[in-house]
Amino acid sequence: MNHAIEFEALTKRYGALAALDGVSACVPRGQVIGLLGHNGAGKSTLIKLILGLIAPSGGRLEVLGQSPWRAHALRRRIGYLPESATFYASLSGRELLDYLARLKQASRSQVSALLERVGLTHAADRRIGTYSKGMRQRLGLAQALLGSPELVLLDEPTTGLDPQASRELYRIVGELRADGRSVLLSSHLLAELEPHIDGALILRQGRLLAAGSLHTLGEQAALPAQVLVRPREQAMPELIARLETGGLSAQPRPDGRLELQVPRASKLHMLRELLADPAIVDLDVREPTLAQLYDWLGAGPQSGAKVAA
Ligand SMILES: Nc1ncnc2c1ncn2[C@@H]1O[C@H](COP(=O)(O)OP(=O)(O)OP(=O)(O)O)[C@@H](O)[C@H]1O
After folding, report:
1. Domain range for residue 278?
2. For a Cys staple, 282 with which of 8, 76, 230, 232, CB 3.0–4.6 Å?
3. How far is the CA of 31 from the centre of ligand 1 (A)?
4. What is the pTM of this model?
C-alpha cells in the first residue's frame, strides 16, 4: 500500500449541493501534500471524510488501507489539528494532553516530550485560558501528534502563529516526513507553504482542478520562467531593443533590472544566449511560484478551470 489516502469518484452531497463532486486523487505515503482551494472548495469536507466523521454519498475512499467510515480504531492512527481548535480553558496544557492521551490510548509518557517539541514546556502547567492564540495552536499540534500517528491532517495550522512559530511548525512537519509519516495540510498561505510540500491537491467548488507533485503541475501549466537581468550601465535601451528583436519582451523594473518572461521550451537556449551577452552583468532565474500556478489553474472562486486532473 503506497498511498496514505486514496479516493476515486468521491462525492459528498448536502441536499442539492455537491460539496465534493466525483474527485479522484491520492496522498502518497511519507509525503507532505498541500490541500488548496478557496473558501467553500470542499477542503474541510474532504478532511471530515478522511477522519470518518461523515459518510461519503458515493465513490471510494481508503485511508491507511481502510474505509474510514465507522472505523474507530483507525482514528488512533490519524492525528488531526482542526482549523480553530478550542480546548477546555480551565485545564493546563499538560492536563489536556494527559486526558487526550488516555482517550486515544496513547502512552502518557509522550506528553512531556510533545510539550517540549512544540515549545510549551514553560507553560505546561498554566491554564489554557491564559494561553495566546499561537500557544493554543501549538498545543493543538501537540495533541495531533499524540500516539505517533501515521497520517497527520493539519487544517490551516499556521493561523495565528508569528513567523518564528510558523517556521517551527514547518520544522516539525519536516521531521514527520523524515520519519515516514504522511501529512495533508490545508492552507491559503501559498508562498509560506510552497517550500514545505511535495505536491498539492487543488479543489474548486467541489471538483479537483489538479493533483500531483509541484514539478508535474509546473510542467502541465508550462508557465514561462521569469528571468531578471541587470544591464551594463548605459546599455539598457540597446539591450531592450535587441531582446525584443529576438522575440522577448523586456520590462524595466524600479531596481534597474529588466524582467523577461522566457518560454519553458526555449529556457536553456535563451539562458545560454543571455549569459554570453556582454551587455548583461547579472542574471537571476525564477521558476513559477505555487501562487502563479494556482492562479493559472483558475482555482479562485470566479475563475474557469484550465486543467482537468
Ligand atoms: N454540513 C453542511 N451542510 C450543508 N452544506 C455544507 C455543510 N458543510 C459544508 N457545506 C457546503 O459545502 C461546500 C464546501 O464546504 P467546505 O467547508 O468543505 O469548504 P472549504 O474548502 O473547507 O472552505 P473554507 O476554506 O472556507 O474552510 C460549501 O459550499 C459549504 O457551504
Report:
1. 224-286
2. 230
3. 26
4. 0.86
* Cβ(97) – ligand 1 distance below 6 Å: no
Q: 147 Cβ partners below 8 Å, 6+ apart?
A: 76, 77, 79, 101, 104, 105, 106, 107, 110
Q: Pick from 35, 44, 294 the residue to mutate for probing ligand 1's pocket: most ligand atoms within 8 Å of its CB.
A: 44
Is 282 inside any structural domain? yes
SS3 284: strand
Inside any domain, residue 118 = no
ipTM above threshold 0.85: yes
187 lines ligand 1 (CB under 6 A): no
- Between helix 110-117 and helix 133-144 the angle, nearest 10°, is 140
CATH number of the domain at 262, please.
Answer: 3.30.70.260
23 within ligand 1 shell (Cβ under 6 A): no
Total domains in the fold of the chain: 1
State the distance from the centre of ligand 1 to the C-alpha of 45, rounded, in angstroms.
6
CB distance 19 to ligand 1 below 6 Å: yes
pLDDT digits (tens, 9 = 90+) for 163-221: 888 898 999 999 999 999 999 999 988 989 999 999 999 999 999 999 998 888 888 88
Cβ–ligand 1 distance for 202 under 6 Å, the answer no
* Distance (Å) from CA 58 to ligand 1 centroid: 17
Angle of CA points 209, 196, 198, to nearest 5°: 50
